[in-house]
Amino acid sequence: LAPPNRLKCSKSRPRDARARSIWVLGQLRLHGASFAAIARGLGISARAVGQAMFMPNHRVELALAAALGLEPRQLFAERYDAAGRRLHALIRSQPAGRGCCWMRAPCRRC
């Protein structure tokens, strides 16, 4: 194995979400990181980090891209337009009459 400072991030990134997830895991290992390490840094579960590979999550996307030394729009190109603006809303609006979470009535976080 080459010393860590000689390992480089591969330039070819898969477009398919499943293949990209495997590619990101491999690149994180080359950089001495993992989904679990990213999750601990963000205070979330490793599963939530893995889900960001398939569903938009801006905060996790930023952390993954930073760990790989990339811009989020380079890693998740389909989530950005040609001008580099994000296509998915960053804040999810709540339906009228519902709380912020799975509860129908407002909870302590609402």
In short:
This protein is mainly alpha-helical. It contains 5 helices and no strands.
Notes on the structure:
By secondary structure, this protein is mostly helical. The chain has helices spanning 17-30, 35-42, 46-51, 58-68, 72-75. α2 packs across α4 (58-68). The radius of gyration is 17 Å and the shape is globular. The N and C termini lie far apart (51 Å). The relative contact order is 0.11. The model has no long low-confidence stretch (mean pLDDT 79).
List keywords for this structure.
single chain, 110 residues, mainly alpha, 5 helices, 0% strand
The portion of residues forming beta strands comes to under 5%
Helical residue percent band:
25-40%
Quickly give the structural class: mainly alpha
Rg:
17 Å
The 3D shape can be described as globular
β-strand number: 0
The number of distinct helices, counting runs of at least 4 residues, comes to 5
Distance between the termini: 51 Å
Biggest β-sheet strands, sense, barrel: none
The helix-strand sequence is HHHHH
Q: Low-confidence stretches at least 5 residues in length (pLDDT < 50)?
A: none
Mean pLDDT: 79
Secondary-structure map:
Blueprint: H1 17-30, H2 35-42, H3 46-51, H4 58-68, H5 72-75
